[in-house]
Specification:
Blueprint: E1 9-13, H1 17-28, E2 32-36, H2 40-47, H3 58-64, E3 69-72, H4 75-79, E4 84-87, H5 102-111, E5 119-122, H6 130-140, E6 147-150, H7 160-165, E7 170-174, H8 177-186, E8 194-197, H9 199-230, H10 234-242, H11 263-276, H12 282-306, E9 313-317, H13 332-342, E10 346-350, H14 359-362, E11 366-368, H15 371-375, E12 380-383, H16 395-401, E13 406-409, H17 416-421, E14 425-428
Parallel strand pairs: 1-2, 1-4, 2-3, 4-5, 5-6, 7-8, 9-10, 9-12, 10-11, 12-13, 13-14
Antiparallel strand pairs: 6-7
Helix pairs in contact: 1-3, 9-11, 9-12
Bound molecules: nicotinamide-adenine-dinucleotide.
Nicotinamide-adenine-dinucleotide is lined by residues 13-19, 36-39, 42, 88-91, 103, 106-107, 124-125, 153, 155, 157, 261-262.
Amino acid sequence: METSPSPRSVAVFGAGYIGLVTGACLAQLGHRVVVRDVVQQKVDALARGEVPFHEPGLSELILANAGRLSFTLDASVALEGAEVAYVCVDTPPTAAGDADLSRVHAVVDDLLGAAHLRAVVVKSTVPIGTGARIRARLDRAGLDHVGYASNPEFTAEGTAVDDFLHPDRIVVGADDDATADLVAGLHHGVDGPVVRMDVASAELAKLTANALLMTKISFANEIAGLCEATGADVEQVMGAVGMDPRIGSRFLRAGLGWGGSCFPKDGTALKTLASRDGLHLPLLSAVIDVNNAAPGRALQRLKDEIGGVDGKTVTLLGMAFKAGTDDMRQAPSAVVASRLLAEGAEVRCWDPLARVTDPALWDRTARFDDVLKALAGADAAIVVTEWPQLRDLPWQEVAASMASPVLLDGRNLLDPAAMREAGFTYLSVGRP
Ligand SMILES: NC(=O)c1ccc[n+]([C@@H]2O[C@H](COP(=O)([O-])OP(=O)(O)OC[C@H]3O[C@@H](n4cnc5c(N)ncnc54)[C@H](O)[C@@H]3O)[C@@H](O)[C@H]2O)c1
């Protein structure tokens, strides 16, 4: 990897999925990086060389760049000598559906004394207008010489390091060329085009990209319902549809719908943002409604098959919101588990990585490390996360070990003919 001809000193605020990947990748590009977080255990773990969550390649990158990358709890330590401050803190939803910007503003508070900064760069996903408000705060604090840029993040958990270093595009929203040049220059050595625009457009580009990806998934789920009613196979339909390069094959999979730390909150935030300006986004509202209905629709097929779940043991295969991550924020598994529990089922679950974020729910389920033990004696199983290792289970043996071999494949991961051959009553989404 080619390193930057002009290494910079960078302070990164937030040692989560985005902040750590950003910090480690900027260090890999040759910059000196200090990452600041407010959670003591996180900073202590990082200082010991431990990454507090699962992200492939991240530990190795942190280790390889240890000489240029450090971690602190102290904002002033992070800012000492820093030329650029990256804001990578979380922006969770408020009760009203907006993005909660309190952490972003807390970081800006820390920056107001750092007159030596050349630029503040916001990577957190924020509503349109956030940059303009931060710009006004910087100006009021006498920091009108400090540039501002929106540099939204398009990486996906599970492939974030590779996505950062080989991106489809690097969006740089800045209102002056010097700041845009500085941020673009920080990415020297990265294999991807820099797309420059104004701050508001960069903010909206991020939310719009997510909304369009959600739309593709919900459309596949809507067509899946039609397939179930007519005998068509959604995998074949969407397979053919996605071969058109104007459409593209990704995000056209029917199933239990999206979850995760971004889509649910970003979709609602965009809707709420528009409604504050008196605008209604009917298409986006429908996309969200289709997604919310997806787990219930799939579960209904299982309940019809086994005559309800009251008193039955149901095993969830997968808890993380998608394969390749330990992230359980807004995972569809939580919707499925709470519905099953509410209807009287005993719920078992298995996942190779998931880090439970809602113990009040998951303490009511039984978690197994061994997937075969989780399935033995169960009345039904549901594939909730598309973990590839599930493809290789000895399904015939599993069918024989279950009280009744019924499987709802909520991700269309397995081969219907093979599963039936293994002895399963096999249900999936939008497939006959
Ligand atoms: N996770 C993703 O895949 C992804 C993708 C694109 C964009 N984003 C956006 O990036 C932002 C960060 O997401 P994430 O998944 O990394 O969140 P995260 O919850 O994993 O990490 C946020 C970190 O910020 C820390 N923090 C909170 N207040 C702080 C402060 N004042 N100073 C320093 N650190 C502070 C938290 O302790 C936490 O470690 C969000 O706006 C999210 O929408 C996330």
